[in-house]
Amino acid sequence: MAGVSMKAIKLRIKSMESTRQITKAMELVAASKLRSAQARAIASRPYFGALYEAMNEIYNSSPCFASPYICGPKTGKPLFIVIAGDRGLAGGYNNNVLKMAYSAIAKQEAVVLPIGKKALEFIQRRGCEILTEDYAEAGVITAEDCELLAERIAKGFLAGKFNQISLYYTNFVSMLSQAPAGMDILPIQPKADGTSRKNIIYETGSESIFNSIVPNYIGGLLYGALCESLASEQAARRTAMDAASKNADEIIEDLNLRYNRARQGAITQEITEIVAGSDQS
Q: Does 92 have pLDDT greater than 60?
């Protein structure tokens, strides 16, 4: 029995060592991808802020400002844009944002635009109406794709197909912290500062300029949220794989201790049997 036990423990040690090699490799890959993803996320943040400030300035330039992007249609369904990862093994990254988004989606009859393989699979399992499945791989989506998607969303909003647009993604806080977040994109709620900038004259009118900027604003939001989510995914995967490697080390250490005990027990048993045999002779 001791020999069988030692063999089983030895096989388990080899299995854990193989698993540790995989988790360590995945941790290094995630750390490598994280650097570029983090740089993209940080670089994308000022673009959204600049556009939003420009829209607020245009909004406050006229005392009687009206835009369909502010009033919103009275018909249509809410559209939820949900960004998740393409793969698992990233701790609670996918589950946290999907759970947060579905808590809002389940309350009403809505249309969902999933971005990322995990988001698409999650929405399909729950039988929600899906706008399109063309964005099933988040890692390959570019800024141009976000601009085209923003134009499609804006047209659908103006046509009364959607009465509200909401975005759910994961915000990259730090290497160790990633927070799921949700925000309403349309209708836009610009900040009124109580002053009218009549000295600013916009050719073709302030409302026309405002409406032309909105698709770029939405595209910037989508791209920024995508960059934040990709950086969060890599950070979460790096943390999860680091924890898995440490757990594997602890298990291997415990198995080595059990193996040495079993080996010592087998040696003691053999010595006892030899002594007992010599006494009988």
A: yes
Comparing CA positions, the residue from 172, 189, 168 lying closest to residue 233 is 172
Identify which of 238, 239, 234, 245 has the alpha carbon closest to the alpha carbon of residue 33. Answer: 234
The set of residues, in sequence order, having a beta carbon less than 8 Å from that of 51 and lying 6+ positions away, is 213, 216, 217, 220
| Strand 162-174, strand 177-186: pairing | antiparallel
Residue 79 has pLDDT above 90, yes or no: yes
**Is residue 76 pLDDT above 80, yes or no?**
yes
Predicted TM-score (pTM) of this structure: 0.81
- State pLDDT tens for residues 33-74: 888 888 888 888 787 777 777 777 777 766 666 778 888 778
Cβ atoms within 10 A of the Cβ of 112, count? 24
Tell me the pLDDT of the chain averaged across its residues: 84
Q: Is a pLDDT exceeding 60 seen at residue 75? A: yes
| C-alpha to C-alpha distance for 245 and 1, rounded to whole angstroms | 31
- Residue whose pair of structure tokens reads 């950086």 in the numeric block: 231
Tell me, what's the pLDDT at 10? 87
Q: Are 48 and 207 in contact (CB under 8 A)?
A: no
Contacts 24+ apart (CB under 8 A), 69-72: 69/154, 69/157, 69/158, 69/186, 69/187, 69/188, 69/210, 69/211, 69/214, 70/187, 70/188, 70/189, 70/190, 71/187, 72/157, 72/163, 72/164, 72/186, 72/187
| Range 7-36 burial, b when 16+ CB lie within 10 A, else e | eebeeebeebeebbeebbebbeebbebbee
